[in-house]
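G., before I forget:
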Amino acid sequence: MKRRLITLADALAVFGALLLLWQLVLWIFRVPRFMLPSPWAVARAIEARFPSLATSFAITAEETLGGLLASIVVGVAVALIFAQSRWVRRMLYPYTLLLQTVPIVAIAPLILMWVGAGTFSVTLIAFIISLAPIIANTTQGLVSVDENLVHLFLMHNAPRSQVLFKLRLPHAVPALFVGIRIASGIAVIGAITGELYAGSSRVGQGGLGYSILYASSQLQTDYLFALVVAATVLGFSFFFVVMFFEWYFLHRWHESARTPEVE
Amino acid sequence: MTLHVAVPEVEFTGVGKLFGHGRAVLEAVDLIVQKGEFVSIIGPSGCGKSTILKLISGLVLPTTGTIRVDGMTPKNARETVSYIFQDPTLLPWRTVQQNVALSLELEGVCSHRRQEKTSALLELVGLRLVVDAYPRELSGGMKMRVSIARALATSPRLLLMDEPFAALDEMSRDHLNEELLRLRLEQKWTAVFVTHSVAEAVFLSTRIVVLKPNPGRVYASIPIDLPQPRSAAARSTPEFEALVAEVAHALRGARAQ
C-alpha cells in the first residue's frame, strides 16, 4: 500500500513538471494562443464549458460501452465456435485478422452510409474495431487447456458441453480479460473516429469526436485541448474499470493478479 | 454348477501400440493384474510405461491385441477407474473442496452427497484445514493430496498412477507413499503405478513389472513379498534392500537389451 502511494506521488510530480515545461515553452517561444493555449487556459475552458464537455463525454462513453459490451458478447460467442474444431479455426481465423487490419477510417464512412449517422453507427464502429482482440485472446484461452485436464474429464465420460463450460471457459477467463483490456482502449478510439464522420447525433450536441472537429474548425484551441483531456480521462476510466473487474474475478486464484511480495 | 474363476482387474493379451510414423511403443505385451494387487511398472524412458496406463483408461486405443478391464472394454470400465497424473492437474479457479468434488460432479452425484463425501476424503488425506484454499496457495505435496482425494472420491476399484510423486522432494514422497498404503488398506483398490524410483516401487508394490524399451515389452515380473502392512521402518530391513537390489539389477538388464 505504501509503495502504491509513492508511485502515485511520483506520477503527479512528473505531471506537474510537464505542465511547468509546457508553460515555459509558451513564455520562451511566445507561441500564439490559438496554436497552443496555456495549461491554465485549458483548465478555464474545462470549467467554463463543463456542461457541454460532460454531455460529449457521456455520449462517447455510452457509444464506447455499447460497442465494447457487444464485442465481448459476440467475441466470446465466436471464440466458442472457434474452439470446437481446428478445421473451423483454420477456415475462419483469417477473417478476424481482416477485422484487425482494415483501417477503421476507411470503413467508418461506409458504415455511416449504410446505417445512417447517429449513435448507433458510432457504436457499431466501436464494436467492429474492438472485436478482433477479444476473439483472438478468448480462442487462445479456450484451446490452450492442459491435455491431462481434458483427459481427466474424458475419464469421467464428461460430454463436450461439460468440458467447455467447466474446463475451457473458466480457463479462458484470464485471456478474455487481456482481450477486453486491449479492446477497451481501441473501442474509445473507434468511437471518437466514428464521431468525426458521424457528426452531431443530437441537436447541437455530439460526442467528443464531433466536438473536437467543431472546436478545431472554430480555432477554439483551448476547448480542443479540454476535449483531448476528456478523451484521455475516458480511455483511462475504461482501462481502470476493466482492471477492477479483472482483479475482482481473478485475484483469488490467478497468478497474474497476485501482488508481488518482493521487488 | 458354475466354475468360479476370478476375472482379472486388468488383462492385456498381445497388446501392441504404434504411434504416428509407425514407431512401435509397445509390442506383444501380455500383462495380468489380479484384483487387490499393487503393480508398479518400471523401465527405462521410452518403454511405454505411461502408454500402458493410457491404454487401460481407454484414452488411447491399442493397434493390436485386446485389453480387458474387469472383463469389460476400457471405455466401459471407466466408471470404476481413477487416474492420477504426474501433475496434480487441479482447476486453479476452484478451491480444494471444489476440486475434490469435481469428479463426483461430473458423475452427476447430488451436491449433498458430494459435500459429505469430499469432507470425509479431505479429512482422510489430511487437508481438513485447507478446504477453502486455492491450489496456488498449496505446496506441491498438498496439491498431490488434493489430486489423490479427487481420484478416490468416486470410490474407484482400480487406481492408475503416472509418476504421481516424481516432482516432489524425497521427504514428501516417502510420506505420501506411506499414506497411499494406509489408504489402500482402508479402501482396497487395485493399483497400477508407474514410477522411475526403484525404492518407491518396492515399498508400495505387491509386484513389479520391469519393461524393456524399443519397443516396450515385459522383461521381468518380480513379486514383492514384504509383509503387510508396511511402515516407514520397512525401508531399512535387509529384505527391502535385497529386493531393491534385485529390481535394480533387472532394470539394468532391461536397459542393456
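Chain A touches chain B at residues 146, 148-149, 151-158, 162, 166-167, 170-171, 173, 252-255, 258 (CB under 8 Å). The mean pLDDT of chain A is 88.

More on Monday.
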